[in-house]
Amino acid sequence: MEFDRLIANKTGMVAKTLRGLEDLLAGEIEALGAHNVRKGTRVVYFEGNKEVLYRANFNTRTALRILKPFHEFRARDENELYRGAGGIDWSTILSANMTFAIDGVLNSPYFNHSGYIALRVKDAIADQFRAGTGKRPNVDTIDPDIRINIHISGDKCTLLLDSSGESLHRRGYREATHHAPLNEVLAAGIIMLSGWDRRSVFIDPMCGSGTIPIEAAMMAYNIPPGIYRKQFAFERWPDFDDTLFSKIYNQEHPEPKEIPHIIGSDMSAHAIGIARNNAKNAFPGKKIEFRISSFENMMPPPGPGILITNPPYGERIRADNLQVLHSVMGDVLKKRYAGYSAWVLSSNKEALKFTGLKPERKITLYNGPLECRLVKFPVYPGSRKTGK
Ligand SMILES: C[S@@+](CC[C@H](N)C(=O)[O-])C[C@H]1O[C@@H](n2cnc3c(N)ncnc32)[C@H](O)[C@@H]1O
Question: Please, what are the domains in the chain?
Answer without folding.
Answer: 2-162 (3.30.2130.30), 184-221+256-378 (3.40.50.150)
